[in-house]
Design goal:
The complex is a heterotetramer, with two copies of chain A and two copies of chain C. Chain A is built from twelve helices and no strands. By secondary structure, chain A is mainly alpha-helical. By secondary structure, chain C is an alpha+beta fold. Chain C has two domains: 224 residues, P-loop containing nucleotide triphosphate hydrolases (Rossmann fold, 3-Layer(aba) Sandwich), CATH 3.40.50; 115 residues, OB fold (Dihydrolipoamide Acetyltransferase, E2P) (Beta Barrel), CATH 2.40.50.100. In chain C, 26% of the residues lie in helices and 36% in strands. Classes of the chains: A mainly alpha, C alpha+beta. The interface between A and B is large, with 100 and 100 residues.
Chain lengths: 263, 263, 348, 348
Amino acid sequence: MRKLDYTTIFFAIMGSFLVLFIFIPIINLITSSDAGSIISNLQDSQVISSIFVSVYSALFATVIALLFGVPLAYILARHDFKGKGFIESIIDVPIVIPHTVVGIALLLVFTSNGIIGAPLSKLGLTFTDAIPGIVIAMLFVSSSFVVNSSREGFESIDPRMEKVARTLGAGTLRTFYSISLPLALRSIVVGSVMCWARSVSEFGAVIILAYYPLVAPTLIYQKFVNYGLDNATPVAVILISICLAIFILVRVLMRGWRTYDKN
Amino acid sequence: MRKLDYTTIFFAIMGSFLVLFIFIPIINLITSSDAGSIISNLQDSQVISSIFVSVYSALFATVIALLFGVPLAYILARHDFKGKGFIESIIDVPIVIPHTVVGIALLLVFTSNGIIGAPLSKLGLTFTDAIPGIVIAMLFVSSSFVVNSSREGFESIDPRMEKVARTLGAGTLRTFYSISLPLALRSIVVGSVMCWARSVSEFGAVIILAYYPLVAPTLIYQKFVNYGLDNATPVAVILISICLAIFILVRVLMRGWRTYDKN
Amino acid sequence: MIKIENLSKDWKKFKIDNISLEINDNEYFVFLGPSGSGKTMLLELIAGMWSPDSGKVYMNNTNVTYLPPEKRGVGFVYQNYMLFPHKTVFENIAFGLTLRKKEKQQIKIEVEELMNLFGISELSDRLPRTLSGGEQQRTALARALIIHPKVLLMDEPLSALDRKTREELIQEFRRIHKKFDITIIQVTHNFDEALQLADRIAILKKGKISQVGTTDEIFRHPKDKFVADFVGSENIINGIAKEGIDGLTIVDTGNIKIESSQKKIGDVHLTIRPEDITLSNENIVTSARNVFKGYIKEIYDLGTIIKLTVDVGEQLILVLTRKSFSDLELNIGKEIYIYFKATAVNLF
Amino acid sequence: MIKIENLSKDWKKFKIDNISLEINDNEYFVFLGPSGSGKTMLLELIAGMWSPDSGKVYMNNTNVTYLPPEKRGVGFVYQNYMLFPHKTVFENIAFGLTLRKKEKQQIKIEVEELMNLFGISELSDRLPRTLSGGEQQRTALARALIIHPKVLLMDEPLSALDRKTREELIQEFRRIHKKFDITIIQVTHNFDEALQLADRIAILKKGKISQVGTTDEIFRHPKDKFVADFVGSENIINGIAKEGIDGLTIVDTGNIKIESSQKKIGDVHLTIRPEDITLSNENIVTSARNVFKGYIKEIYDLGTIIKLTVDVGEQLILVLTRKSFSDLELNIGKEIYIYFKATAVNLF
């Protein structure tokens, strides 16, 4: 096609508005705080502990999502069954539920007299204002990333490759971990990182289940409400830097990941 | 393959934990409120107006996302250029930024003395504690749904089909709206609905830019903090019902949407 | 011996409809059919990759219908090779032995022996995506054969390859069949392939078997119009058959009368293979019962051979070599005579 | 007339490397090459779907190098039809006219005329996905022809079709070529197709043209080993050429001496088309300069024809019809004589 026709130029201009709309606030934020206030915040034990709670809880949520999500993804990729559409919907539905509604829904179930919270509280596991509460809030909003990305990974593997492995003497489980899992690993890792990042980003659901222990997004909100924008900004800069660093690291890693051409 | 081997059964059991973890809180929430309190909330003008603000602002954000996002998606689907990976990253990055950080970042730029807010405030457009603020918060977190889904739609159209249209006498723009757009419409609609739902669900970014006018998620939070769980639950039930209704409606519509087999 | 009894399976748009069949030990058996005829599913049913809706599969008189593929000891080769892309050629071939927990040294010996056999030793450490189609298919063959299966199943193993590699692999298949003391069942949509390789052929149509027989039986005596079309019988004519003299049948096509040595009465189709028709400039006397005068209507240059359409009342197609063609000085409109024997006329 | 001058384009793994070429008005021209030879890109460059890196394209002496496709007035037909899936057959064919803002009634008349021509009138209101491959390709042809292009470009238009439909469409192509007073440029990887359709053929290899010529020139006198391999010359032998008697060249292959009417000295390849070799049970006298005694080494039953490998010092392949094969009572190991003329020996 011609390289520069008017339609393409017009489309490019329209598109760049959206790109700038996202890009400018991020760059502006990162460059808005002076080094001094960032360093003093990095020495603030409340800031450090809130970031630690965020990172740690999100990691925990991701591990749980992997444990249950990868088998589910494999089932969805390989089997057709009645009610499959229903299960797919269930996995996707957290994206469209308002975050504070998620918090309310989880709180109702996981309080010490909720239908799941009650038996678990007898085992000494409490969710309100505790790390487990943060983890389940994160898990609820982010597990779909692991399931959907892993599923795409499994679906990109020709099932006939697994069938050949079977004829060579591998059982279902052996076929899964020696053929399917290694080939889908890249997609699973991508999904995990998105799951982790989405977990760190959650605020509405977490704040209802567990205002304390403070996660980083809650701390930023608290600082903003109590001391104003200037006070909240340095923490926001620190948190966005961590998120962007992870995001960029993953993109770079993924680009270098050895991909296998489909045969 | 054998229908019931142990691996499959084990995977299914693991997977169903995750499904139940999402399903139970939602069902529990929907069935937790009595009809009386829901009806009285539906007659509460504050509830109605907050839902209206949510729905209306989300719709507005979606229209803007479509206006700028669809051309961008088409460019990304059809052209290779330097910096393409960078632009793709920019579009995806809002997913991983914590919601309150988004709020801080947008507030810095869109206050009446921010780099974008200042010129616009002279035109009479204010963002803090106003509908425009809610809309940009929503747009920031949700526009990627429109871009990525539309792009997938365009990518599934064989470019050779557009090339044939060109040889028959259609210019680039004509080819776009008579061939590419109709064929990608399904994906664009799916992306729009996800964009709208994600907009409604946003809480952290909205609350920082505009606590008032109250959106529904903020109202739920306010009721929860001020009057407790029992008081917040009916509003949560109303909001989740709206979201689920839209979600189910779209799934049903999409299933009936006439799809064209790829040639 | 493989015995299939009333096998049925209906899944999405694929279907196997009550197939019964026996395949002998060490036979080279080919399923031939157009796409959508269910031939791949039939092969996968034999391998145990599906449960049939009904029916049974026996191998060596054992009912294996519900045995999973890993317990059947069959080798499988797909059209698109289906090599494990994250494993080297060596690891791909060794896979079956690794599962059997053989000693490393023993595995190395056996894999190298097979790589030698297929001339792929120097590819040992390469990943599949760096190989050509032919190299990949040789690796896939070696991978399937290393477990010494009694049965080798191949699903369109030549369709993704270019003409030259295809001909090389046809030689390999023949060699394997002799060397390995193995039953080979191959699926293809290409009749020429089947003709070059098969001991027996089964023609599949919409999940049912239309005809089973040796290549010659199917080639010369297609049982119905579908088979005749599929094996490329270009001269298919309708007519009414009556008893003739000398025990022959006379078919009246409306325009000409053709004699056949096969016995049939009433509405029939008849086929004559193009290469069974002789052409001459003069009306010479031969032993052929069918002689017609006509003219050349169309000439197709197919390179190695020339195809003619001759109008003798009915339009018949015949082929000759480029050499005969120029010796006879043929051109469009030229009057000629054609001859064919009554035994060359197949009725159905 | 289409004139291509020093055209080059390098994009991802595809490449066109300094191609110059002239295609005459009303010519049926075929680009023949293996996949990856850049033939589709060349066609798309002619259609204006790419900007070349360098070089020019002329149509009727006008430089169209930077004209967008919608201004070139060429028709394009792809292998996978590329019908607009959301439009009916009628709407697909009418598309070009609708763009030209013709009156509805006029469009209806023209579309129906073309649908009649291709025998697809009754499909008018159907969506493309409900059609067979042949029907889709006919629709695509009608869609391209309705704007009465001076040039029709076709990219592997027969590759996705089964044998029978392919032969039908070859007839259609011939008919269109005669009826529409049009230049057709077709791309294919299948030599038989080219042979049946082309006035001239260009052989492409890695973005360069290896040879251009009439079908006969390319078939009988391939210019190098690549072309010879590609057009299926199976008898390719190396040897040393010396001057012989009667103005002939003698090629010593090391095992036998072959005479050729072409003049060349030194290291050469020679090709002999299998159908140019005659076979006899006796040493009869003919005008053929090359006569060798040998034995039959291999027999391949290809259905319509039989292919033999004969060992006369060198191994030569020859073909004969099934009928000649049985008349001569041939079998493996049998001693026979082969003959071919010096003019049948191509040197390069």
